[in-house]
Amino acid sequence: MQYPKLPGLTWDGTIYENEEMGVYEALLPSGGYPTAHAPAMLELPNGDLLCCWFAGSYEGSADVHIICSILPKGSTKWLPPEDISNDSTRSEQNPSLFYGPDHKVWAMYTAQLDRQEGKDNMQYTAVVRCQKSSDGGKTWGPYETYFPEEGTFCRQPIQVLSNGTWIFSNWICTDSLEGLSGDPTVFRISYDEGKTWKTVMMPKSNGHVHANVVELESGHLVAFMRNREAYRIHRSESFDWGETWSEPVPTSLPNNNSSVSAIKLQSGRIAIAYNPTCTPSPQPGKASWPGLRCPVAVALSEDGGQTFPMIRWMERGEGYMGDENKTNNKQYEYPYIMQSEDGMLHLAYAARTRKGVKYIKFSEKDILGEKREQVGLYNPTAAKSH
Asked: How far is the C-alpha of 245 from the C-alpha of 249, rounded, in Å?
């Protein structure tokens, strides 16, 4: 497939080849909305890619809703986004996509009450809803409330474990003066493909949210989490299919109190996309918002997330360096990473201070620094041999 060369990169979804970085990238069509945030992706059985995110005036406002763009298989251009949700009384946020056993695309997302005078954050009113598409993301049916407990929030998609168990990461928001620092992680577990769910709490997980579940081996799970103290990405383990979890402990990767995304690659490595910045002086139990959400990096681990010796910056922002210049960079945040069947990696994140969503396509070799024989070609069979 031939991609046009940079310069280019306009907000029309056209994918360009960035020869300097050795990747392919696009700015997705905005749909005319002033802000975009929290993208998620999914590969369909026919090879199409979906990317959804929330768009509207600003996070927390009732005009914010979920939209979805499609990259048809073999195309070099993302299509203009279509509406998924549109409840005019609630701010609909943090979508995730899942291909269900009913052969429909499930869009799971939060829906919280509109902003109220004197209230900075209404996340404690959120519920989790689901809408489904029978035509590959072109049109969507009405919503169903899956988790009505107020304060329920989500970000990562439903994961299907090797024994068929479903696990869906949530956290519970409260109306707290501590700035969301008390939010604990919970898991919804289903043994009947989402018909019924049980709730499992992660111990001592207050302030640890956005859990990304990865199955290392049969029944052995790890979860990588955002840390409200803006200190480090944290890690927890389960050895019984998610029924019990260890207390979260910090990894070596910085976290700036922004979303992270973790997956297990075909090679067996763990990949985490994140902002490699943190607050210099975390306060135990206190949420911190250092503000800097640039650059975006992808780190690889070969020991289940204990260490991350391989890290590459995939987004450099405007390129400013040093404490005196770093605020000149715009914000690039909430990355979502996935791997398609052909072995390629796909990364999406809110770009240019939530002006829109940026998409990057690359290979595991691009992170490792290994030379590919020809830019744009990738051998997933070879990748599995690492």
From this structure: 12
